[in-house]
Design brief:
7-stranded mixed beta sheet, Nucleoside Triphosphate Pyrophosphohydrolase, homodimer, 3-stranded antiparallel beta sheet, 2 domains, about 30% helix, DNA-binding, about 230 residues, 6 helices, elongated
DNA sequence: ACAAAAGTGTTACACGTACACCCATGA
DNA sequence: TCATGGGTGTACGTGTAACACTTTTGT
């Protein structure tokens, strides 16, 4: 994305604002991040976080929504600002202030389609990330840390699952995210006890064992509970 | 602090980076914020958060440390970035990206001295803050929200107390910060059970009741425990 | 009938809550 | 000796941890 800078006036190089977004997904087994492969110098062939420069009269939040929409075709994605990265020499071609976001998407909603877009994006497991262009590895690391903190205190894990999911899927997600295991029975009791999940009649299909019940997160229920001084915690 | 912009070249107005810091303190009874009174338009006579423009080749973290040092004379203050505020029209004189921080200081270390500095800064109780210049009220609100979250999960409350403090002071602080009351006996058991506080021989003095024991937070102890997978939580 | 995962019940124990009580100091 | 807040012990209930067990499906 920074490649575009080359085409722009040098005013942007002396002082640019960009937005980058760490996009998380979950494929049922691993927590994933969306990375793109840079096609140009600097950092040619390095992995990078998707992003773009912010236009002169553009709100950064609009800018990052634009980037995400162009990349994935999705709207109304869960999105939160992480922090700004603004060191003097983070970009070799001139000073750039980057406002970093992270977002959570349902992985089924976006399959990187190599032919659809110029940048080739793909999902990478978070354990496999090692080096990245610029200070993107640092951004990724901080985003992951923040996600781990947030997911314990806010019911945002559901953003990474399909609309309808089983409790086993949910448990698996939390186990991967928090890096520990839960007892099945206790996990169910705790999460169902919160009264945040709406049980559906629908059952899992085409599994070679007893099919699990599907659930749906009920945001209005959560809003109600919040007013009554309820605090999600896992 | 924005007043300085007037003296600078218009390049900064078309695109400036500034740093602002929400400085918290605790006087034993109330959580306080350091506010300055603006002496010039725009927002003349409004309260504002201390801050300044970032120089062309200055790291924002250095910039905010500079501002805090100029204002309070202190160094090595607890400091954390909140987030960036970068809306297009937040500043009437031109686009400014503000990186907001918050910091915690021991209130005894800084008494606003009206004669010592041009800007007159003073401590205000967080309940009394209502309106501020620019979007500073929003910045303040978000900083406070973040502080409330952080203080539950990280042992940073001590940054707001003197080096040596009593358990009653600590309890009071948490009660004001989290907006609830704790049972004295249970609070002590919990906090002392964490093994983070070093009990001193010293006792409280000149109080007209039984003097309380003084404690000191032990950061090295905390570092140790963290390695053993301990997680602070209150 | 078997494997595999869903789903439930039971018990022991740790921890939070509530509250009563004693202690040390200044006036 | 009284008022004030420091400091501690205990009893009770709730919630978490551990684990065994039953259920339902596909092969």
């Amino acid at each position: 994305m920074y490649d575009k800078e080359r085409a722009k006036s040098s005013v942007y190089f002396t002082f640019g604002i960009s937005v980058d977004c760490v996009v998380f997904g979950f494929d049922g087994s691993h927590v994933k991040v969306l990375v793109i492969k840079r096609g140009m110098e600097p950092y040619k062939n390095f992995s990078a976080i998707p992003g773009d420069l912010v236009l002169e009269r553009e709100d950064p939040l609009d800018a990052i929504k634009r980037v995400l929409n162009e990349l994935t075709g999705l709207k109304d994605i869960y999105l939160e600002q992480l922090k700004a990265f603004a060191g003097v020499d983070r970009h070799p071609l001139g000073r750039v202030v980057t406002i970093a976001y992270y977002s959570l998407i349902k992985i089924d909603d976006y399959n990187p389609n190599p032919s659809s877009w110029a940048t080739d994006a793909k999902w990478a497991s978070i354990e496999d990330i090692d080096e990245m262009a610029f200070d993107h590895f640092e951004i990724f690391t901080e985003a992951l840390t923040r996600l781990k903190e947030r997911v314990r205190l806010k019911p945002i894990g559901f953003e990474l699952l399909p609309e309808e999911f089983t409790l086993a899927q949910l448990q698996h997600l939390y186990e991967k995210l928090l890096g520990k295991t839960f007892d099945k029975a206790n996990f169910r009791k705790k999460i169902l006890g919160m009264d945040l999940l709406f049980p559906l009649e629908k059952l899992q299909k085409a599994v070679k064992h007893r099919p699990a019940r599907m659930y749906r997160f009920d945001p209005s229920r959560y809003a109600d509970l919040t007013k009554r001084n309820f605090h999600f915690e896992l």
